[in-house]
């Protein structure tokens, strides 16, 4: 409308806005939240396992753990416990917690907790297995990050350092040739 080729650019801009805005804005925020929750998960579930090991039932252990840890994951568990106190069953509250958390790893732990409490299995054994799985996942994530560092360093050295070295070595030759 404002310039001559606007009728061509307007649909392209609208198309890019419609398809890229959710990807750029929402998906990055969801991914950051998933990473924060997964970073909080190991500590939270270790304290939860210690609380269950000390003799508390699952309900009291989650209540004590979520009140004593200040993290985003414990906030989500506090919301779950508020839902239980307002009348939801414990299993329904776990399902609603699973729907609020974008992490597959934490959702897997919640599913295992739910099945253990439903079928009467040892929740402590399940939590210890899941904590070991979290440790393995964190270790593999760090190894993959470390393995990418040499590639990043080599790209930086090729782009910045090699031209500088060539300039330092060939500079006097070029000055003699031009002068």
Q: How many β-strands, per DSSP? A: 0
Average pLDDT score: 89
> pLDDT under 50 segments (min length 5)?
none
- Cα-based radius of gyration, to the nearest Å: 27 Å
Helix fraction by DSSP (H/I, runs of at least 4) = over 70%
Major pleated sheet: none
Outline, from the CA principal axes?
elongated
Main structural class: mainly alpha
Oligomeric state of the chains present here: single chain
Order of helices and strands: HHHHHH
Separation, N- and C-terminal Cα atoms: 58 Å
Number of helices: 6
Describe the structure.
The protein has 179 residues and is mostly helical. Helix 1 packs across helix 2 and helix 3 packs antiparallel against helix 4. The longest helix is centred in the C-terminal third of the chain and has 56 residues. The N and C termini lie far apart (58 Å).
Label this structure with key terms:
179 residues; mainly alpha; 87% helix; elongated
Produce the secondary structure layout.
Elements: H1 6-53, H2 58-68, H3 72-85, H4 90-100, H5 104-119, H6 123-178
Helix pairs in contact: 1-2, 1-6, 2-3, 3-4, 4-5, 5-6
Characterize this entry briefly:
With 179 residues, this protein is mainly α. The chain is built from 6 helices and no strands. The longest helix is centred in the last third of the chain and has 56 residues, at 123-178.
